[in-house]
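batch job 7 of whatever, protein = ATP synthase subunit delta
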Amino acid sequence: MSRTVIARRYANALFELAREKGELDRVEQELNQVVETLERTPELQEWLAAPAVDVERKKALVAEQFQALSDWTKNLFFLLLDRGRQGLISRIAEEYKHLADEARGVAEAVVTSAFPLTEKEKEELAAVFQDRLGKKLRITNVVDSDLLGGLIVQIGDRLYDGSLKTKLIRFRQKLTGSRVG
């Protein structure tokens, strides 16, 4: 079974519990805190992954380092340690975020533009797509000077390409395709 499928199962179980308890935001913040801490301290990651270290010592350190965590998040971490799957925590956090966003009616959008978008442009763009999708957008702007102008908007598996570069390519294809003999 793939690591993504396993991470999705853990995330789904935690999500259902957090939703039932009305703690979606808190658990998401806690998962992000754990992931950030582990990314900042690779030594801690290595120590937690070391098979020579007793699981109970690992749990004691986690309980000490992450005292503010809810019981649900802490118990998930302990379960991962028991099963030697602590390396999945960042994937679980990603999957949880997707589930929580879906429950909140929020979608992630990656907007590629030739120049950085202003906050006002992001808001206007979010409003246009919110009407289309019925979801609020969280926009991440990627700048690609090769576009020349226009935008490429990716929301999940949907791609809206309104870039000048793509329009010019299509126009060229029409011109070359309509040549007479």
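notes: The longest strand covers residues 106-113.
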